[in-house]
Specification:
Blueprint (H helix, E strand, L loop, with lengths): L8 E7 L2 H7 L3 H14 L1 H19 L1 H11 L3 E6 L10 H19 L6 E3 L1 E2 L5 H13 L4 E4 L2 E2 L2 E2 L6 H10 L2 E4 L15 H4 L1 H15 L2 H4 L4 E4 L10 H10 L11 H4 L4 E3 L5 H11 L4 E2 L13 H6 L5 H18 L1
Helix pairs in contact: 3-4, 5-6, 6-7
Amino acid sequence: MTAANAPTVDVHAHVLLPEVEALVAGLPGHAEAKELDARRNGPAALAVSGPMVRERIPRLTDPAVRLAAMDAQGVDVQLVSPSPSHYHYWADEDLAEKLYRLANEATAAHCSAAPERLRGLGLAPLQHPEQAVRGLDHALERGLAGVEISSHAPGRELSDPAYEPFWTRAEETGALVFLHPFGCTLDERLDRWYLSNTVGQPTENAVALSQLIFSGVLDRHPGLTLIAAHGGGYLPTHIGRSDHAWSARSDAGAGCAHPPSSYLKRLYFDSLVHDPHVLRELIRVAGADRVLLGSDFPFDMGTEDPLGALRAARLSDADFHAVRGGNAAALLRKD
């Protein structure tokens, strides 16, 4: 199959799982997490987000409504991941196991309504590194393509040695790992004007990817298939500063073998950057074979017209079709 003949694949689309939220409802840890989320976002953002999500519940939960929306967008296949609000990294070990099992099973059930058009990702509890491998294996056993993770867990960065077994297992199995932040540790500094998302998400992406690069995780696991949401955040457009630090400072260059920019060509990125010039720059630094169509379906910080956003970048035909679906179709076939 050539890229031009490949289906159009959206790798950044979400599903809402009421079963997961029912499991945590009323628990003290959930209440504390909601309070933290409220502080991080601020009251004005919550007042907008609540109605926005409620209006989109049919698209988030009903496969028939999802498929109709995909048809309207010209999307053939979605890689469906749980809403990041389902991470619940506050959960203890027993609850965390119940959560990832339920999330994986519910996502697989949602995608089973149209297995030729819907592929799924599960969850792995990063707050318990020893469970992350089990969560990944459980997702793969349910026919999912891999797992979705956040940019960090409480008290742990993605560079933490405790995650080495997880990276090893993901590399061995060819599983897709979708890096999608939830929340930002800048907390109340971003609690107005929805800065928690507009600044917070790309910041978290940049920090998480930098942890993986500078720590040598990508040196140790060159076959890891990691997809960064939101075009990798701020990192790809500011990677020159990372390269300079790596070459100018012994502390910055101690953990990874090559200039940071070289690792962008080992990662995958979705196309959701909201600016055709930024998308062209992402393709320049990472390569057209490393960028995948993404919409953040169906949330308001996504795009209702992912193909239109891609066309606006005025790519060559070859690059357009690679990003439109050729790259993702190859990954899903490998999976």
